[in-house]
Amino acid sequence: MYFYLILALQAYCIYHSIKNRNDYYWIFIIFFIPVIGSLIYLITQVFNKRGLETVQDNLVAIINPTKKVIDLKKQLEFSETFQNKVNLADAYFEISDYKNAIIYYTDALDSLFSRDTYVISKLMEASYYVEDYKSVTTYYQDLIGKNEKIKPENQLIYGLTLDKLGKTTLAEGELKKIDIEYSNYSERLQLAEYLIQQNRKEVAKKILDKIYDESKHFTKNQHKFYRKVNTLLKSV
């Protein structure tokens, strides 16, 4: 039992380090000095940033990723509220079970909550991941019809969907809307990654070069984007 606890602790620390793009030497410290290295990492990199409860939840999620789904299913069986349906859909989304996420997001959109833009936005994203591009465009038009300001993540998915559908010119026009200086870094990096995968490296490099220039003015919290840009630039 003690051995598995150490493995779980190591797994969480390595996962946290990779997710937050901390210096690579932390992975070696955690791996080669299991207990002490993990404790040092927690104290210096986690506890000063997050509460103990969040760390515990993340550890449980790594050890048993479906536990959250099971717990929320029971909660929904007890009370079939809009929020409980959305919480369960979110849990499925987090473990990349997009088909089940779509089922519960759709079920949440009854007549009373049919205008909920968060759920529509998540349905749009989940539909993209299951390659249901027709639904993506439908949900995008729903957001437009509600006179909502389109979020960068929705704009990105809509543009990528048009590209997947072969509507290259329209896609370029939509994707340009997220390529705005000093903003939308996450979406612009995702776009660059997509373009690299499509072997459109010249276009990707232009986006990455702009972000690289902007990185000179990054705050401390934005340095993770700087490291990601450097990594991607090496591949183009």
Task: Give short descriptive properties of this protein.
single chain, mainly alpha, 236 residues, flat, 14 helices
Helix-strand pattern, N to C?
HHHHHHHHHHHHHH
Output the structural class.
mainly alpha
Major sheet, described briefly?
none
User: What radius of gyration results from the CA coordinates?
Assistant: 21 Å
Q: Approximately what portion of the residues adopt beta-strand conformation?
A: under 5%
Describe the structure.
- This protein has 236 residues and is mainly α.
- The protein has helices at residues 2-19, 25-32, 34-46, 52-63, 67-78, 82-94, 98-108, 117-129, 133-145, 152-164, 168-175, 185-197, 201-214, 223-233.
- Among the domains are: 2-63, no CATH class; 180-236, no CATH class.
- Helix 1 packs across helix 3, helix 7 (98-108) packs antiparallel against helix 8 (117-129) and helix 12 (185-197) packs antiparallel against helix 13 (201-214).
Summarize the structure.
With about 240 residues, the protein is mainly alpha-helical. It has helices at about 1-20, 25-30, 35-45, 50-65, 65-80, 80-95, 100-110, 115-130, 135-145, 150-165, 170-175, 185-195, 200-215, 225-235. Among the domains are: about 1-65, no CATH class; about 180-235, no CATH class.
